[in-house]
Structures are given as C-alpha cells and as structure tokens.
Amino acid sequence: ALRIKDFTEEQRDRMIDEIAKSEVAVNVHFIPMPMLSFFSSLGYDIKNYPQAYENFKGEISLPIYPQLDEEKLDFIIKAVKDAYLKVTVDR
Asked: In CATH, what number is assigned to the domain containing residue 50?
C-alpha cells in the first residue's frame, strides 16, 4: 500500500483513475470498519475514528506479486509519479 499524506479522498480517487489509465491495477483495500455497512448499521460512525479515516483517504494498494520484475516495477513507479504530479498540479 502507498499512503499519501495530506491527500483528500477526491485526490486519492483521481490518482487511482490516472494510474489506471496506464493499465496498472490499483485499488483501495483497507477500508475502515465503521465505513462497512455491517458496522455502520450497528451505529459505528467514521467520524468517531478520525485517524482511521485519515489513513484511508490517502491510501492506495499497488501491485505486488512474485513475478513483479524490475521493468514492471519501474513502469508502476512512473505511473504513480505521473499521476501524483497530475493530481497535485491540477488542484
């Protein structure tokens, strides 16, 4: 996972879209429990867990697997850097 400090949820989502345009699989896998329907139906509210939300809004999951060679890794790094620049410049 990659955590980008001081990112908004909207910026994170834009970054995911930009990285995906490079055909790099990227997603959000670590969703705080209070944001899951089961826990929210029990009365849990993400507003009571500000650190969990802070981590969630700036975190994305990047590819990691045994066949990830240096060439693919360089491609992923470039896609992430390019997306970051595009999202932060277009604020």
From this structure: 3.90.1150.10
